[in-house]
Amino acid sequence: MEYADKDFRELAFDLDAELGSVLGNLITLNDVSDLTWRLREDMDNVKDEGIRVRIKEFQRSVRILEQLMFYSMKDINVRFQNVININEAIFNIAVKKENE
């Protein structure tokens, strides 16, 4: 999409719409993070020694993925909230200019 010819108001509304789309993806990623955490917990709590031996290889991979998701999502969520705050400020300025 071309943004060079748009005015400030149009850009503010486009930004708001795009952030809504990103938020949908962020919700999904948070769900994936939660699921990997639950899978790791379940694998860590297996009592049957025979099953523990068979899942050991996968357990390490799940643990790594869970930690990666945890720290990545922690950072992304903080940064996304900052972007939302910036977007709200820009949107308010655009609406204020429109009402003047």
Write a compact overview of the structure shown.
By secondary structure, the protein is mainly α. Helix content is 88%, strand content 0%. It has one domain (29-99).
What is the count of β-strands?
Answer: 0
Estimated radius of gyration:
21 Å
Note the main sheet: none
Bulk shape: rod-shaped
Strand content: under 5%
Low-confidence stretches: none
Number of structural units classed as domains: 1
Distance from N terminus to C terminus (CA atoms, Å) equals 29 Å
Number of helices: 2
Instruction: Write down the overall mean pLDDT.
Output: 89
Structural description of this entry:
This protein is an all-alpha fold and 100 residues long. The chain has one domain. It is 88% helix and 0% strand. It contains two helices and no strands. The chain has helices at residues 8-44, 49-99. The longest helix has 51 residues, at 49-99. It starts with 7 loop residues before the first helix and ends with a helix.
What are the key terms here?
100 residues; mainly alpha; 88% helix; rod-shaped
Question: What does the secondary structure layout of this molecule look like, with pairings?
Answer:
Blueprint: H1 8-44, H2 49-99
Helix pairs in contact: 1-2
